[in-house]
Design a protein that fits this description.
single chain, 349 residues, alpha/beta, Isopropylmalate Dehydrogenase, 11 helices, 12 strands, 41% helix, globular, binds 3-isopropylmalic acid, binds manganese (II) ion
Length: 349
């Protein structure tokens, strides 16, 4: 396995470039410490770039990005760009075109972090949400009829084929099988969405029975899972769900682990035929951009996920320890540059 990793860096908008710098400094320091090479190449794609040039993500850029081992993305979204243009044209386009069919979102309470939940400790919140990342309500199947009239119709369909469902569930089963508790909770709505989640439910049970008998299977309706994520998060080990439900429940999960400043994610193509992309769950936060206020921890956590994905497990584990030590000892009120300096001090021991 090569230990030279070529990373495309899309800092993006708002606080994106600020937190990206901190995260990649930390990753670079791990490269020096553990003897691998990170080659970083900056890409300008963002809302600001779109306003300047009219490009969101053209075919040449997309082809070029395919040559990298991974993509690191800070955050995109610009107040002067109409909602949807950058989200669909850049972020979702990358997820779809690079077939990053898994969105992996750990929900983990680090030491010293205040959860809004009562009486919880880090032992109570430590699970992973596997969000399907290319289909469902995000497929873009639908349209308008009689648009603008009083009888107009708008349709947006939840579309899944068996292949999409099966590859997502297989990834989740493999992840659950690799963890000590070996428990996989599928989240759906089988009582109302009786076509789509009937398919999910059948594949879940068939696959579990045939290929993963060692994994304990559980099922939750999406509304009930929100209740348990608040009331009893300790019951979860690995959770798997559809794209839209995953989008919603991971914001709730992020809040329970101390907020968006603490939530990391990986958009993963497990086949590795195209690069995977790592990004903090938070957005570009234009209201605090350029003020040195952004918390870079979610970005560092996302860099940790990237190192793990690149096969640099020791460096990733060591980075994780530093994150935990940082959260255990430092207040959340530090500025971005103060956080960065403190973090690097802890990381370098
Ligand atoms: C996320 C975001 C995106 C999503 C938006 C920005 C398109 O909310 O990564 O969770 O809906 O997936
Ligand atoms: Mn979201």
């Amino acid at each position: 396995m090569s230990r030279t990793h070529n990373i495309a860096v899309i800092g993006g908008d708002g606080i994106g470039p600020e937190v990206t710098k901190v995260a990649l400094d930390a990753a670079q320091s791990q490269a020096d410490k553990y003897g691998f090479t990170l080659n970083l190449t900056d890409f300008p794609q963002s809302g600001a770039h779109y306003l300047k040039t009219g490009e969101v993500l053209n075919d040449d850029t997309l082809e070029n990005l395919k040559k990298y081992d991974a993509i690191y993305l800070g955050a995109v979204g610009h107040p002067d760009v109409k909602p949807g243009i950058i989200e669909k044209g850049l972020l979702l386009k990358l997820r779809f075109e690079l077939d990053q069919y898994i969105n992996l979102r750990p929900v983990k309470l680090y030491s010293g972090v205040d959860s809004p939940l009562k009486d919880v400790t880090p032992a109570d919140i430590d699970y992973v949400c596997v969000r399907e990342n290319t289909g469902g309500l995000y497929s873009g199947v639908g349209g308008f009829n009689m648009k603008g009239s009083k009888d107009e119709v708008a349709i947006q369909s939840m579309v899944y084929n068996r292949t999409q469902v099966e590859r997502c569930l297989r990834y989740a089963f493999e992840l659950a099988a690799s963890r000590p508790r070996k428990t996989l909770a599928m989240v759906g709505k089988t009582n109302v969405l009786t076509y789509v989640f009937d398919l999910w439910d059948r594949v879940f049970n068939e696959l579990g029975e045939k290929e993963f008998p060692e994994v304990k299977r559980e099922y939750y309706h999406v509304d009930a899972v929100c209740m348990f994520m608040v009331k009893d998060p300790a019951r979860f080990d690995v959770m798997v769900t559809s794209n839209m439900f995953g989008d919603i429940v991971t914001d709730l999960g992020a809040e329970t682990q101390g907020g968006m400043g603490m939530a990391a994610s990986g958009n993963i193509n497990p086949t590795k035929s195209t690069p995977s992309m790592f990004e903090p769950v938070h957005g570009s936060a234009p209201d605090i951009a350029g003020q040195n206020k952004a918390n870079p921890i979610a970005a560092i956590m996302s860099a940790r996920m990237m190192l793990e994905f690149l096969g640099e497990q020791e460096a990733a584990d060591d980075l994780d320890k530093a994150i935990d030590k940082y959260t255990a000892t430092q207040p959340l009120t530090l500025s971005t540059t103060e956080s960065a300096a403190k973090f690097m001090e802890i990381l370098k021991g």
